[in-house]
Amino acid sequence: MTTPSPKKPVLPPGHHGHWLLGLNEHVKDPLGALVRAQRKHGDIAYFNTQQGPLYMLAHPDHAQRVLVDNARNYPAPDKRPSRLLGNGIFQSNGAFWLRQRRMVQPAFHRSRLVRMVEDLVLGTEALAERWEPSARSGEPLELLEQMRLLVPTLLGASLFSRGVYERDAGLQASVAFLSHKSHGSARDSLWKLALRRLGYPRSRRQQFDAATDALNASLYGLIAARRQAPSAGDDILGMLLEARDTQGEGMTDTEVRDELVSLLVGGHEATSVALTWTWYTLLSHPDVEQRVREELASVLGGRPPSSGEALQGLHYTRAVVEETLRLYPPAWQVMRRAQEDDEIAGFTVRAGSLVILPTWLLHRHASFWKDPERFQPERFLPEQKEQRHRHAWLPFGGGQRMCVGNGYTLTLILAVLATLLPRFQVRLVPGHPVTPVASNTYRPRFGLKATLHPAPAVARNDSPNLKAVSS
After folding, report:
1. Which residues partner with 335 through β-bridges?
2. How confident is the model at residue 111 (pLDDT cuts 50, 70, 90)?
3. How much is the pLDDT for 187?
4. What is the 3-state secondary structure (H, E, C) of 80-138?
5. From the centroid of its chain, how far is CA 367?
6. CA 375 → CA 31, 137, 303, 318, distances in Å?
7. For site-directed labelling of 198, which of 150, 166, 180, 417 has its Cα 20 to 30 A away?
């Protein structure tokens, strides 16, 4: 009896030539390359890259296969422990990642989020006080920069309790540098990419090392002081110190440090960008902004939220944030690596290949989103959310490795909006280019310039108008 020959792999259409032929396009415009591939080849396409075979999978069913149904075959790409992030949950894999994830997750349970809101509001009110002179003078502010200054302060309050972050100048300076001054652009030329690979410019490397050393000194100092205190504290640092794995073992100082950095530095930029895009969608749609103001007046009575329970009544405002994350997802792609051959949509995904789930494309898939380029918050009101493919909206990823801080991020954005909108009318500066760029995050390349004005009076309305909004 003859043994049947193995099935010949069927590769998707796409770029099968030498990786050098497509390198320039991917370096200059990685998202654009995926958009063009979908238009030309459909939801699954193949690229031969310098990192080996790469598959673009742009259908929600593909995302479900990779992130849930066959997730064991698609771990996150291996990352070596880095000088900055260490081996926290953003870097680690396997059994160690699962242990750390289980120990970190309770810090973001809903009951803890509710208790964090007061500090989020107080930190945002401090920003509002700094905004008052600009509101009187009409001097423009750059909102992305403002959000990059605000978010680590709020994260610091949640991680270390209120006031600790503000009192530690070294911690503030190192986070400021590591979080946004070190961001590069996806349009860097090839020679700049090569220089970075070789470790140049040296001055930037020295600055990075100095900022990392300062960050470590601050964090290890906070950890040591907290271990010696009578109580671990009712903040995320305290919870990490008290966490125990299934064997009853706690985290080492290094493991606690790595998770703090993952949350503080790793989560800061994406949250700042998400807040900036939320301002943009509100300011670009005055009718939506008005309905948000009406809901804030109705639910909160014109006052900042006093608790997490108050935020839970902001259904329309939350829908605005979620629709913003659909059109402008800071994490615009999810990457995995196939361990064994798999078959998706009739095509072979070869073992060892990189797989990209382009969140940006999933959020615009015409089979799952009616008029996908239209900004329509009503898509995310409860009755419509129930009908959606659960993997058509993945701003925080999906499956086991969904972002551990997804609920915290939404809570933070709602707290910021609920605190600032009743005090200010924010208006875009005419003529300032709002040009998205897909780099480490999907963000406005030139920021977002706006002027501040006193907020208009809003009559309390117990039934805000939630009819469909067109762009």
Report:
1. 356
2. confident
3. 42
4. CCECCCECCCCCCCHHHHHHHHHHHHHHHCHHHHHHHHHHHHHHHHHHHHHHHHHHHHC
5. 25
6. 20, 32, 28, 14
7. 180
pLDDT at 18: 52
What are the DSSP calls for 169-215, one per residue?
HHHHHHHHIIIIIT---TT--HHHHHHHHTT--HHHHHHHHHHHHHH
Strand partners, 14: 46
Reply yes or no on whether the pLDDT at 262 is more than 60: yes
Q: What is the DSSP letter of 69?
A: I
CA angle 395, 273, 283 (to 5 degrees): 100
- Taking the alpha carbons of 360, 361, 362, 367 in that order, is the dihedral positive or negative? positive
pLDDT of residue 184: 46
State yes or no: pLDDT of 308 exceeds 90.
no
Pairing of strands 52-57, 354-357: parallel
DSSP 467: -
Please state, in angstroms and as integers, the Cα–Cα distance from residue 367 to each residue in 58, 88, 392, 468, following that order.
Answer: 12, 37, 10, 20
Query: Which residues fall within 8 angstroms of residue 439, CB to CB, at 6 or more apart?
Result: 183, 184, 185, 186
Q: Cα–Cα distance between 193 and 183 in angstroms, integer?
A: 13
Q: What average pLDDT does the chain have?
A: 87
* CB atoms closer than 10 angstroms to residue 287: 11
Q: Which of 51, 58, 48, 55 is nearest to 21 (CA)?
A: 48
Q: For residue range 16-63, what is the model confidence (pLDDT) as tens digits? A: 655 555 555 666 788 999 999 999 999 999 998 877 889 999 999 999
**Cα–Cα distances in Å, from 141 out to 146, 147, 179, 333?**
8, 11, 20, 30
For 264-285, write each residue's pLDDT tens digit: 877 888 999 999 999 999 999 9
Q: Position 133: which residue type?
A: P
Pick from 51-55, 95-99, 176-180, 363-367: least confident = 176-180
Q: Identify whether the C-beta of residue 43 lies closer than 8 Å to the C-beta of residue 345.
A: yes
Q: What is the pLDDT of residues 422-454, one digit of tens each?
A: 999 999 999 999 999 998 899 999 999 999 999
How many Cβ atoms from other residues are within 10 Å of residue 310's Cβ?
A: 20
Which CATH number describes the domain made up of 14-26+35-454? 1.10.630.10
pLDDT value, residue 190? 46
Identity (one letter) of the amino acid at 416? V
DSSP 397: B
